[in-house]
Amino acid sequence: xxxxxxxxxxxxxxxxxxxxxxxxxxxxxxxxxxxxxxxxxxxxxxxxxxxxxxxxxxxxxxxxxxxxxxxxxxxxxxxxxxxxxxxxxxxxxxxxxxxxxxxxxxxxxxxxxxxxxxxxxxxxxxxxxxxxxxxxxxxxxxxxxxxxxxxxxxxxxxxxxxxxxxxxxxxxxxxxxxxxxxxxxxxxxxxxxxxxxxxxxxxxxxxxxxxxxxxxxxxxxxxxxxxxxxxxxxxxxxxxxxxxxxxxxxxxxxxxxxxxxxxxxxxxxxxxxxxxxxxxxxxxxxxxxxxxxxxxxxxxxxxxxxxxxxxxxxxxxxxxxxxxxxxxxxxxxxxxxxxxxxxxxxxxxxxxxxxxxxxxxxxxxxxxxxxxxxxxxxxxxxxxxxxxxxxxxxxxxxxxxxxxxxxxxxxxxxxxxxxxxxxxxxxxxxxxxxxxxxxxxxxxxxxxxxxxxxxxxxxxx
DNA sequence: CTAGGGTTAG
Length: 461
Fold this sequence. Notes:
- Pfam families: DYW_deaminase, E_motif, Eplus_motif, PPR, PPR_2.
- Belongs to the PPR family. PCMP-H subfamily.
- It is built from 24 helices and six strands.
- The protein is 64% helix and 6% strand.
- The structure holds one DNA strand of 10 nucleotides.
């Protein structure tokens, strides 16, 4: 209850007046602390509890899960098993949420196996969590297997599957599912429509997207909100209809937010529109002066047109505002262990082999006709250095490691914290062909499935 | 009277 209202002080006050808090009160307090961001305090209280039942364990695991400290959530889960605590549905759901967040497919599969082995009934909630986990790990085949096997489905279940399909580039399938959902008389809500509109966007169905958008209010009585406006701007932007996107923003009945201008800015990057890109960036910075993503996108637009003056002015502004680019980080899961790579990272124990593989990649890609896209390197450096800088992007390191360490033909799965850069996207397409390897990259907000030299995003992301 | 505390879709 206190967690919901985010009143840690009030909760703490009430709690401190209890003469002898029992398991229930302590569990509630663990939840309240975790829910208000005080996860470490929650953990201290949890560790000091004289008895901990499964609900208490779950409160703590959910606490970690909700603030994105997913690794700790999984660690606590394994500790829970070591101590022989009975694992219930809620805990499994929290653990699946953590796996989804990390993109940890192997761990998620293990949990699914655990469910089957222990004959835990797949309820609507649990099934939905499984679908979400597989979707966010880029395994839509398994996500849909779970979906179709479920007897009872609610709006969360449908929305989750639709979101997964849209996120993984299967826009048409997403919309088919929506039609089926309507046939089954499940009422869509505002979250469902985010997936519907994203589905239209990735499928390039502009008019249909516009129809669905209008139907929200007309047929379902759902008022479109920021996210929906953002989707339509993305829809127009992806189709290259930048004027329509601008007109749409100008006609918004609510004040355009960072996401609205961000969608426009991204379209400007793809369609190389400097003037509009500068305008969108100004709008974003008016709302959020330290938005590093906007600076990086604008810099990319300048660099793409070899406008080095523009590039260095962006660098100056960033310095003046005290903004720095979030460092890129790519993660690859291998044998249940997560390997992290940062830009130019030489700290991996198998670094020597990785370096050799990077050399081989470079040679074989060049033979296949790959030319480094040096345009998007953030700052103006010499051409040769640039090519070198690109080689060290975190996803290339992770892919090189995957090629070395994973068995022949095993899909390489990468999770990245930022957007994929143009050069890495290009290079990965080549790698998928030259090395005959499927590569799945989850970036900040979507998936790229690379196969035979092509990507599921159709080169728009 | 013996509950109450934990979980899913953007």
